[in-house]
Amino acid sequence: MKPTLTLYNTLTRRKEEFETIHPGRVGMYVCGPTVYGDPHLGHTRPAITFDLLFRYLKAEGYKVRYVRNITDVGHLEHDADEGEDKIAKKARLEQLEPMEVAHYYTERYHKYMDMMGVLSPSIEPHASGHIMEQIDFVQKILDAGFAYESNGSVYFDVEKYNAAHHYGCLSGRNLDDIVTDTRALDGQSDKQHSFDFALWKKASPEHIMRWKSPWSDGFPGWHMECSAMSTKYLGEKFDIHGGGMDLMFPHHECEIAQSTAALGHDSARYWVHNNMITINGKKMGKSYNNFITLEQMFNGEHDALEQAYSPMTVRFFILQAHYRSTLDFSNDALKAAEKGLDRLMKGIEALGKAKPAATTSFNAAELAERCEAAMADDLNSPMVISALFDFVRIFNGLADGSQTATAEDLEALKATVNRWVFDILGLKDEKAAAAGGKDMVTPLVEMLLNMRLEAKAAKNWTLSDQIRDQLTAIGIRVKDRKDGFDWEIE
After folding, report:
1. Distance (Å, rounded) from C-alpha 143 to C-alpha 261?
2. Which pLDDT tens digit goes with each residue over 336-377?
3. 374: buried, middle or exposed (CB in 10 Å: 19+, 13-18, 0-12)?
4. Are 348 and 389 in contact, with CB atoms under 8 Å apart?
5. This prediction's pTM
6. Rounded distance, CA 353 to CA 198, Å?
7. Are 81 and 75 in contact, with CB atoms under 8 Å apart?
């Protein structure tokens, strides 16, 4: 019997048994990228976290509608209310149409997510394509009395909402703290209170991206797009809303307030947040100018990188940490992930060479049980990987004859590996993929090692040592065995 899936619900600050609103069907909304620059390492954490959840839910038999938005309008420089639109700024600097910028970086995002093994969502709506839905949502909030118009802009009345509900329920803040922490920004004279946030902004004369509305030619506030698009595609009540921990306040807090004001209730049952990737203990991001783009990760062209790292190495690096823990970038950690991934893939290759025997010398069901229990416990991917590593020794033993398994147990073990390594963790054998699905490295290395065996048999120790030393020099460690050899990439 499979364990019950539990998820850590940020709203209640505890693990909760996962129950869908509609049996067998899951509605999941995740905040996607703002497309005004190349994706960086920090962007991979939420993408891979929710790809893992998406894959796991599907593997468990759920029908999942996964919606991940593209923010191509209304995301401003300083906060959700003030400054220059980031896409419009990029368009002005590069003398392009804003939608050219948005399209170019959306395509770049898709390219790199595909390289990282991140599956496409079920639906990927763009904020710019849902302006009418956002206008309608703003009107509902106005009709409910929780917003006000000021000089062509519409603002959410946080104080009035807080008197009827609780603004800050997700982040654990109270309004007094928010008032204390709110900084003064230019243009806030239109607001009744500094902590009120924009639902619709009147566009200044130089603002490129603008749409007609009942209040002004303008554009929606940043928070509005997710409230409008999540409910359009998943209904007024859906199962999971996710994103990075940095979005908890103010973005997701404002979403809850908007939905509750317009609909009378919050839309999401579970709020799930991944933690940050840090560098030298500080959040990695464009605002801190300490980010490494994925292109730089893959070609090694960044001062913080000692070498290039493959997409699967980066994915494995992220999966080795629990999604709610911080993950600090370091070359040592990435090199360890590279070696660990190679060890796992070599073990799986060894499993493929195993021959069936009359008996099984180990508990063949243990791997599946451990992986299932770990993933069902709040997506504990590090424990899944730990279980797989424990079984790599058994895989190698099956190949060299020190372990045995019946044909039935071998097939079950291979099915378990396929389910967890490839289907759920989303890893790929990059050596095989680089050769168009054919592993070119293994036959070349083994040809050299067979030549070395022949040299040893002929007592040509000079050639034997030369082959071993040259393989070692390029990072391939050779292990001599009684019945031949084994090797691994260091």
Report:
1. 9
2. 999 999 999 999 999 999 999 999 999 999 999 999 999 999
3. buried
4. no
5. 0.87
6. 62
7. no
Peptide bond into 250 cis (omega under 30): yes
Tell me the HSE value of 115 on the side-chain side, using a 13 A CA sphere: 18
Q: Which residue has the tokens 């191509």?
A: 72
In order, the DSSP letters of 365-409 are: THHHHHHHHHHHBT--HHHHHHHHHHHHHHHHHHHHTSS---HHH
- DSSP string across 249-301: IIIIHHHHHHHHHHHSS-SEEEEEEE--EEETTEE-SGGGT---BHHHHHH--
Q: Which two tokens stand for residue 171?
A: 């982040």
**Half-sphere exposure for 229 (CA within 13 Å, toward CB):** 27
- The one-letter amino acid at 235: G
What are the structure tokens assigned to 284, written together? 């990695």
- Encode 79-117: b = buried (16+ Cβ within 10 Å), e = exposed: bbbeebbbbbbbbeeeeeebbebbbbbbebbeebbebbb
Question: DSSP readout, 23-63?
Answer: TTEEEEEE---B-SS--BHHHHHHHHHHHHHHHHHHHTT-E
Tokens of 289: 């100018």
How many whole angstroms from its chain centre is CA 316? Answer: 12
**Rounded CA separation 222/255 (Å):** 10
CA distance 60 to 5: 10
Residue 450: what pLDDT? 86
Contacting residues for 53 by C-beta, under 8 A, at least 6 apart: 28, 240, 242, 272, 379
At which residue do the structure tokens 């190698």 appear?
396
Q: Half-sphere exposure of 223 toward its Cβ, with a 13 Å CA cutoff?
A: 24
Q: For residue 245, which amino acid is it?
A: M
DSSP string, 153-222: EEEE-HHHHHHHS-TTTTTT--HHHHHHHPPP-TTGGGSSSTT-EEEEEEPPTT----B--SS-SEEE-T
1: CB partners within 8 A, 6+ apart: none
pLDDT digits (tens, 9 = 90+) for 200-248: 999 988 888 899 999 999 999 989 999 999 999 999 999 999 999 999 9
The DSSP letter of residue 128 is: G
Find all residues with CB under 8 Å of 104, minimum gap 6, and list them: none
What would the two tokens of residue 117 be? 């093994």
* Spatial distance between the Cα atoms of 49 and 274, rounded to a whole number of angstroms: 7
CA distance 151 to 488: 68
Question: Residue 275: which residues within 8 A CB-CB, separation 6 or more?
Answer: 45, 245, 323, 324, 325, 326, 327
Mean pLDDT of 405-423: 97
Res 180 pLDDT > 80? no
User: Chain-centre distance of CA 141, in angstroms?
Assistant: 32
